[in-house]
């Protein structure tokens, strides 16, 4: 048979199969735009700004709609009511991790972020318990953050007020904090191995937020057969896994089961207790990937938020001045800020919250999946269906925030200037998959930003009105544009 005929027949079969799969489920799923064969609704999504695409589609199809990203259906939840109903009211049913082929290729279904089922439940339960045992949310972790913030101050003083890019130096603080929890160790800011890890972590989040990765996730066959930046993610993950395995081996040789010092020690003890269980999830491979997950999640999101926060403070010097006035009045210049100060610093607390709300760091959250067939708002979502929850639509809701596209700490203040909580503040997501390190991240953001502003005046290289605060990408994460500033000691 002629090769052309074979190709035409094969393509026709694929098209028919694609159409059958899409149409067979549409009677049960929420409404949505009509998908094309094979590519689905891909052409209706701007991979450079997915959040805006979802907002536009929600205006046509409502707060719950279906997209076909390739041949697979994805249910999108848009707005606070739909997101809350799924992640909080039906937390168990929406607790699965949805498809993310690039991450699945690099994580192999291990760890805490992209695992599923019993593996995820056991590792997450163990991780939360161990982090609490190690002082998460307690005074000894606060001491570590304060010490690291002071190390940051000393490094910033070395710039002598000269222009500098804050990317690497801001990454060092949260990374050293998480290293002290995982490894019982910290790095010097000039350690080349440390800087290499920082560079790989920063590169990973840049790549994950790029349009190319959105293409790869929609058409997974590209991952194995096409060159591209996704291969760098795999290289970085292999490097970090190898690095962590070396640390695990060192811990195995020095382990004192009567006196565990860090996360790896606790895990190794748990693993030895599970030796009789042939199906135990507590393997060395799972430990390595869990540590890589904690390492990345504990560094990338916090350092990116810090970097964006400084850019917003440069853009809005009147906000910076009010925060520094509050720091001078409550903390002064002769001691380090502490978490106890936060209740007496409503404007500073509001500023930190507003930074997280405004930058909308993870616009569409990490993908969820339903763990069983579920009837949701008169629709039937089949088990395993990927669900995207638009955190943007919650953080930028005009009913809750008077001017959501404007950076304004008043969004979290009442008429008397007291801090005002909001149920719509969900930068860490919600439900059973919410960020395990939320407490640590919130502590770090408050202590690091107040320590910087206690010790330095932030000087931009251009007039504030000319500072661009538009994110350079809004795929996986909203990343600030590159910039420099001067840290002038006060």
TrEMBL record:
Gene3D superfamilies: Cytochrome P450 (1.10.630.10). It is an enzyme of class 1 (oxidoreductase). Coiled coil: none annotated. Heme binds at residue 435. It is a peripheral membrane protein. GO terms for biological process: organic acid metabolic process; xenobiotic metabolic process. Its EC number is 1.14.14.1. Its main location: endoplasmic reticulum. Keywords: Endoplasmic reticulum, Heme, Iron, Membrane, Metal-binding, Microsome, Monooxygenase, Oxidoreductase, Signal. Residues 1-25 form the signal peptide. GO terms for cellular component: endoplasmic reticulum membrane. It is found in: Endoplasmic reticulum membrane; Microsome membrane. CDD domains: CYP2C-like (cd20665). Its cofactor is heme. One of its GO terms (molecular function) is heme binding. Belongs to the cytochrome P450 family. This is unspecific monooxygenase. It comes from Nannospalax galili.
């Amino acid at each position: 048979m002629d090769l052309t005929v074979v190709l035409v027949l094969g393509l026709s079969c694929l098209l028919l199969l694609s159409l059958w799969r899409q149409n067979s489920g549409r009677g049960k799923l929420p409404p949505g735009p009509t998908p094309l064969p094979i590519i689905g609704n891909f052409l209706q999504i701007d991979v450079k700004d997915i959040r805006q695409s979802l907002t536009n589609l929600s205006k046509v199809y409502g707060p719950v709609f279906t997209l076909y990203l390739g041949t697979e259906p994805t249910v999108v939840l848009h707005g606070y009511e739909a997101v809350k109903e799924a992640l909080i009211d039906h937390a168990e049913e929406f607790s699965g991790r949805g498809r993310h082929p690039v991450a699945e290729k690099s994580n192999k279904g291990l760890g805490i972020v992209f695992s599923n089922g019993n593996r995820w439940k056991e590792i997450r339960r163990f991780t939360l318990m161990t982090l609490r045992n190690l002082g998460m949310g307690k005074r000894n972790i606060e001491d570590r953050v304060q010490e690291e913030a002071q190390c940051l101050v000393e490094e910033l003083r070395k710039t002598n007020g000269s222009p500098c890019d804050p990317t690497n130096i801001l990454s060092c603080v949260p990374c050293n904090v998480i290293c002290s929890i995982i490894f019982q160790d910290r790095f010097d800011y000039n350690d080349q191995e440390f800087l290499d890890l920082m560079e790989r972590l920063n590169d990973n989040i840049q790549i994950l937020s790029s349009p190319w990765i959105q293409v790869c996730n929609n058409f997974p066959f590209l991952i194995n057969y096409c060159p591209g930046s996704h291969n760098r993610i795999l290289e970085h993950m292999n490097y970090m896994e190898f690095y962590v395995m070396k640390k695990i081996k060192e811990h195995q040789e020095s382990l004192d089961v009567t006196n565990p010092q860090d996360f790896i020690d606790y895990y190794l003890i748990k693993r030895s207790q599970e030796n009789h269980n042939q199906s135990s999830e507590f393997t060395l491979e799972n430990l390595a990937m869990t540590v890589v997950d904690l390492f990345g999640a504990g560094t990338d999101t916090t350092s990116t938020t810090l970097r964006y926060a400084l850019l917003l403070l440069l853009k809005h010097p009147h906000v910076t001045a009010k925060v520094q006035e509050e720091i001078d009045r409550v903390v002064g210049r002769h001691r380090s800020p502490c978490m106890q100060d936060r209740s007496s610093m409503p404007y500073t607390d509001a500023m930190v919250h507003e930074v997280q709300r405004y930058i909308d760091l993870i616009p569409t959250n990490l993908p969820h999946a339903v763990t069983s067939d579920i009837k949701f708002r008169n629709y039937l979502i089949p088990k395993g269906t990927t669900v995207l929850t638009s955190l943007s639509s919650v953080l930028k809701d005009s009913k809750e925030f008077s001017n959501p596209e404007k950076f304004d700490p008043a969004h979290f203040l009442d008429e008397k200037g007291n801090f005002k909580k909001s149920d719509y503040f969900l930068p860490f997501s919600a439900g059973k998959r919410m960020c395990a390190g939320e407490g640590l991240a919130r502590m770090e953001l408050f202590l690091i930003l107040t320590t910087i502003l206690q010790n330095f005046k932030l000087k931009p290289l251009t007039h504030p009105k000319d500072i661009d605060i538009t994110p350079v990408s809004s795929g996986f994460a909203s990343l600030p544009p590159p910039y420099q500033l001067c840290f002038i000691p006060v």
